Structures are given as structure tokens and as C-alpha cells.
Amino acid sequence: MAKEIERKFLLRDLPAKVEETAQKYLIEQYYLIAEGKSEARVRLKEDLDSGKKEYFLTIKSGEGLQREETEIHINESQYIILSSSAIKGLKKWRLKTPNGFEIDIYNERLSHLSVVEMEFASEEEANAFVPPQWFGEEVTENAKYKNKNLAYELPHLDKLP
Amino acid sequence: MAKEIERKFLLRDLPAKVEETAQKYLIEQYYLIAEGKSEARVRLKEDLDSGKKEYFLTIKSGEGLQREETEIHINESQYIILSSSAIKGLKKWRLKTPNGFEIDIYNERLSHLSVVEMEFASEEEANAFVPPQWFGEEVTENAKYKNKNLAYELPHLDKLP
């Protein structure tokens, strides 16, 4: 269970120093359920420095104001079975900066869209945050930029392009 | 992925010979998502003869006429994490007869309701099936007897009563 307080912005520019100091991951995620407030998703997260691959299952469910998110580690074969029956998916590169910015750069299927996200411990902290110059328009409340809405439909059993 | 053709009946009577020859399981299942056609569920299935426990995650998703069901084995710790954030659950005993009847006897929370289910390879076979005398009313089309509708709400982190 986790409650997330986040703000999301388009990326105007990626400063070379930010790129150099960030941890880099390749993320593939597949949606098995994306209906109303419910979501069941698997994710492969590959650390591009160490080559280490981790697999996750995330389940989000909600009724009214209650919203829950549960995440577990899964193994590669569980990931393969679950992802092969997904309805849609997406691929992106993630740069995680030392100060906690998460920059997501989507692949060509999504015109290399780039967003940056920041998580906060409280709403006060979120409201007080002043984005740096290289952040663009804020899209926190824009449903279009939710991952489940960016995900594209897949021919079954196919890998993500 | 699996398409299921099943018929379900209330149980009028449980003949001693049927009970004796059946394999017996205890089943606990927890629902993380049960919204529209979507379902994410974990199940513990304990073989009451051997004591062997197996854990499963099942995800059902559907859009229009398409409906998919995916099931994977999970381990005990994955089961514990996922079940602890479930919204509802149920407990039942299952008797599986040598000819493939599945008799489910629900616990006292569900007034020991008993149903019997049979799976078929084709619709022709399903339609040709003549239920034995100890079967009661057919409830195949009755949504009330779907497991996700029988499941009761749980105080979080509690085990099933």
C-alpha cells in the first residue's frame, strides 16, 4: 500500500550534467487490466549500468476515495507469462537523478515524449516545489500523460516495438 | 488464456460414495480487483491429503466479447503480500471427483452454501449433460453464485474467518 504525492512536467531540455549523473534504466511495462480505477501491470526494469534486470507486478485498485497500490517482485518466467496476455504496453528510458527527479523518455512509438516526475513526502512540500528552468509545462492533472493512457495496443504475444 | 464452458448447480445432497472418492482441498481466495469484467485474485489451494500448498495469481480481463484469463504460480511470500491488500475474500472446501465434478462447500460465513460445477470441452457436450439426482437447481447464469459476488469484505490485513 502506498499513497503517492507527485508532480509531473514535460521536459523542455535535458542538461548534460543531469544526464551524466543520473542512473539509467530501460523500462518495459505491460497492462493486463486498465479499467476505471483498477490496474494490473507488469514491469521489466533493466539497470543500464549493471545490466541487472528486475521484474515487478503492480496492482492498483480503488473504490471511492480509497486507492491502493501493491507491488511485488516477480521472476522472469512469471513476467513472460503475464506480459504475453497483456492488452497494451509501452517502453521508456528512465533517468533517475541524485536529487530524485525521474525523467522518462518514451520510445519512437510515442514520438520520444519526455516527462519528468518528482515525488514528495507531503502536499505542503509538493506545493512549495519550484521547478528548474529545464522543466516545461506541468501535466500533473492531465490524464493524457498517465502511463496507462500512453500505452499502445499490442498484437498478442508480440514484444514491444 | 482459456475459454471456459461450465455449468453450475446447487448441491441437493452429497452421496457418501462421492465424498469418499473425491480429492479434498481447502481454498482461500482474495480479490484485489473485481471491477466490471476485470478481476485480479490470489488463491491458496491446500491438498488436504498430502498437505501440499500451492499459490496462484489469476488475472481476468475483458473488453467486449474478448475475455482472457491468465494464471501463474506464485510463492508463499508473494501470496502474503498480495492477499494482505485484498478488498474481499472467501474460504471454501473443494471436492474433486474422479469424473471431474468440482463440489465447493463454502464456510459458515456463507451458510455452508454448496455448489457443484462441471467443465466441458464444447457447448454441445455441455448441453447434452444430464445432471445426477443429487444435483439441485442450475445456477450457471445466476450472478449471485459467482465467487467474486460471494466474497465478503475484509478488515484489512485480517485473515479469512
Helix content of chain A: 10-25%
Count of DSSP E strands of chain A?
Answer: 10
Oligomer: homodimer
Give the radius of gyration of chain A.
Answer: 16 Å
| Separation, N- and C-terminal Cα atoms of chain A | 32 Å
What percent strand of chain A? over 45%
Contiguous uncertain segments of 5+ residues of chain A = none
Most extensive chain interface and residues per partner:
A-B, 22 and 22 residues
The gross shape of chain A turns out to be: globular
Number of helices of chain A: 4
Largest sheet of chain A: 10 strands, antiparallel
Mean of residue pLDDT values of chain A:
91
* Secondary-structure element series of chain A: EHEEEEHEEEHEHE
Helix and strand content put the structural class of chain A at alpha+beta
Structure report:
2 copies of one chain form a homodimer. By secondary structure, chain A is of the alpha+beta class. Helices cover 16% and strands 48% of the residues of chain A. Chain A is built from 4 helices and 10 strands, in the order βαββββαβββαβαβ. Chain A has helices at residues 16-21, 76-84, 123-128, 147-150, and strands spanning 5-11, 23-35, 38-47, 53-63, 66-74, 88-96, 102-106, 114-120, 135-138, 152-153. In chain A, strands 1, 2, 3, 4, 5, 6, 7, 8, 9 and 10 form a 10-stranded antiparallel beta sheet that branches. The longest helix of chain A is centred in the middle third of the chain and has 9 residues, at 76-84. Chain A starts with a strand and ends in an 8-residue tail after the last strand. The model of chain A has no long low-confidence stretch (mean pLDDT 91). Chain A binds chain B through residues 1, 32-33, 35-38, 40, 57, 59, 61, 63, 68, 70, 72-74, 78, 81-82, 85, 87, and chain B through 1, 32-33, 35-38, 40, 57, 59, 61, 63, 68, 70, 72-74, 78, 81-82, 85, 87.
